[in-house]
Please model this.
Amino acid sequence: MDTQKVSGRFPKVGDESGLAPADRFYREEVQLANRNRGMPLEGLRYPVTPAGMHYLLIHFDIPYVDAGQWRLEIGGLVNNPLTLTLDDIMKRPAVSIPVTMECAGNGRALLDPRPVSQPWLLEAISTAEWTGTPLRGILKEAGLRDEAIEILFTGLDRGVQGEEVQYYERSLNVQDATREEVLLAYAMNGRPLEPQHGYPLRLLVPGWYGMTNVKWLHSINAIAETFQGYQMTGSYRYSHSADDSGDPVSLIRVRSLMVPPGIPDFVTRIRLMEAGEVTLMGRAWAGLLRVARVEISTDGGEIWSEASLAEPVSPYAWREWTYNWKAQTGRYILCVRATDSEGTVQPMAQHWSHQGMGNNITQRVDVIVE
Amino acid sequence: MDTQKVSGRFPKVGDESGLAPADRFYREEVQLANRNRGMPLEGLRYPVTPAGMHYLLIHFDIPYVDAGQWRLEIGGLVNNPLTLTLDDIMKRPAVSIPVTMECAGNGRALLDPRPVSQPWLLEAISTAEWTGTPLRGILKEAGLRDEAIEILFTGLDRGVQGEEVQYYERSLNVQDATREEVLLAYAMNGRPLEPQHGYPLRLLVPGWYGMTNVKWLHSINAIAETFQGYQMTGSYRYSHSADDSGDPVSLIRVRSLMVPPGIPDFVTRIRLMEAGEVTLMGRAWAGLLRVARVEISTDGGEIWSEASLAEPVSPYAWREWTYNWKAQTGRYILCVRATDSEGTVQPMAQHWSHQGMGNNITQRVDVIVE
Model:
């Protein structure tokens, strides 16, 4: 196929015939997509995503932090409030865990109708090896009091959302916050965090969607009530409408993705490949659950075949799947879907919600085999 | 402003009243914006951009390269064709240079009408310290022959563009290719290239737009004619229409950008700040020319004031500018424009071209001061 002309195989984008208005995006969505960053799906080849390829969703601006001046404040309902430097934190017991992280909004731009926010298709997913100290050790040292029911995490990033000026902050109940795998993380893939990943310190809560992992951590407060801030009550909800408060978004839902086979057309990303045997591969994950099964369809989801599964990269990370496909000349919609250890299967139809959260719809990859 | 409600300050996106169809974007543009990556403009604070924050434009897929198997082939019109391993290249004389790189399509999505491609607003800009060996040393060793008029650089990334199956490849004339600052680069900010930046080796041509810096370099061939491949003749042209071949895109045009002051609204990115004195800052660059002057306007470009300039980070990198602004309550359109050492000033009106190349229009930042 080296110098081949492939006229007419790929639609010309810009021809508006038949295009529904809802298929067009707002300038503000594009502005967010240029700032934030997905992992190109060929990045699924790496068991641990190269740091600079890791997806990013940043609500406000990336704060410019002088780590020498920076302190972590631990207060609220504790007997011994603490003020810690980065060195103090790095001297504590350290744990490294590969963790698969996904944005709760992954799949949003596939929804119909489409909520306006960061317009992720399927690329807001990555795995990194995070190093930090268990939060529960720090909370123990601070002397968490019995009246505390939640831990509130506040970042240094500040902006306006829902017409409210705010620092980015989220809470966890004490039980979730004191699980052994919850870390205060200061390194990613063996190197200090880069600014865009939360330098100098971020929260890491394996199995939860990305919004939980508060970056540029500034303070941790034990509180006696359920935190009512915007990022808990106004956003990250599975709601049916603007008037519905809905349920909170929490753990990552089961999903699988594939590395699109063959080569891409630049604008449409439709794939072109040669007929013959090819090993399809990708990764699957399910939050705190296990992935029980991954299936492949080459006909848009009519007939499914079992993929082979490798061991997970860690208890909190994705597992590789592979499938040998004898590709014959033709046009195909390849699909991959996973089933979690509780029997939940990724749907073929969208999981619609008003804010576009947790849409783990099955991936579809358009492939021309020649 | 900590818990302030700011109702009505920021437009609600999704209200279609008055929105021109040309202001809406195609799904394919969003797909590209999610894959590629701009540098959030607060990243202008760093003289050298953190590696994971550097902008990326990737035409096809990021190749998965085994550096142990990888070889660089140097051939064509040379007396001693070479096959080099990465170790061979790293043993040669090494140079490190901070270089400002910009995508030729930066500013494309600000054009009206808008060409359909990667929809950059203004964020396709970064500076990294690249380390490599001068290309001219390698060409000398290979014994470049007198008949050679161009050097052709071929990457491992392959796909379809302009309905043509191709490896990404670009050429330079011998004079440009043998300038002392042209490197075969294997490190970025002191670390091996990450896959998305061209691992294991890329071309680096300071002062030229990004498309020149061929990633995942696989072969270098000296040729006796002007290379007519798609990325030279079909793309990266300053053309007026689909039928106009236009002039080739080459050196980076003068541009300046600012770190948007204050804090952002999440969806619109309109800025909110408190009245008082603030130091505006940013960076300016001009390809192989110097930046002679940077000016600021706080009224959308009517009245201009001189900014202060620091020394360039290197002869091939941007220079910082600062400007003290006494911000009073009101609504402002902040602008910044630079003038290069040949007297060319950034325009207030767009530089339109059919492919959306080199649009160095003056930045406008919408700010509410309260």
